[in-house]
Structure to design on (189 residues):
């Protein structure tokens, strides 16, 4: 009955189950991000989506995976960008319309405004691990032209929470592998 009458809700529930089952098996961050974007785009019928992660050394938020953003995908947002500042303190998704009316976004430089326009997102969903912003998910317009419902937002937020934990685990695994290689090379000398 749910599948027939509440198809979208049923699809979202299945997507969350699939992601929670498989996210922990990915030990490479880019593969994890791509898998999640595929799930989001196909389940929520989104035309564009992007995944940004905080670089540990530069503190910039860099695009690591996307769907349908075009060829120029060297997007970076500084840690002091108003969107990042807002996502850092917000416990909810930031809608595009807020970036057009909130005072802190009115002072954006032309380059910062252009970057947001190229991302072309309707929602920016924060990814948090241990209370810190480690990235964000940018979700474009829905193909059917509808706005994001409360259920859509809740699904994306749940997915963001699961993703943040899986990303941190993948990063820790990657760091440990690098340390092992360095120690192995050191002891071979």
């Amino acid at each position: 009955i749910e599948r027939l009458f509440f198809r979208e809700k049923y699809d979202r529930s299945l997507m969350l189950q699939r992601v929670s089952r498989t996210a922990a098996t990915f030990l490479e961050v880019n593969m994890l991000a791509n898998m999640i974007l595929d799930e989001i785009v196909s389940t929520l019928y989104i035309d564009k989506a992007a995944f940004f992660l905080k670089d540990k050394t530069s503190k910039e938020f860099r695009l690591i995976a996307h769907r349908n953003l075009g060829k120029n995908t060297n997007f970076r947002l500084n840690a002091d960008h108003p969107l990042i500042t807002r996502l850092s303190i917000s416990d909810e998704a930031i809608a595009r319309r807020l970036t057009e009316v909130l005072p802190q976004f009115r002072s954006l430089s032309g380059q910062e405004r252009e970057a947001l326009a190229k991302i072309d997102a309707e929602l920016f969903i924060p990814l948090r691990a241990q209370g810190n912003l480690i990235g964000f998910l940018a979700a474009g317009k829905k193909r059917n032209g509808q706005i994001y419902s409360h259920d859509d937002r809740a699904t994306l937020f749940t997915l963001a929470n699961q993703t943040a934990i899986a990303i941190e685990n993948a990063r820790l695994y990657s760091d440990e592998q690098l340390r092992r290689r360095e120690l192995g090379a050191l002891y071979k000398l």
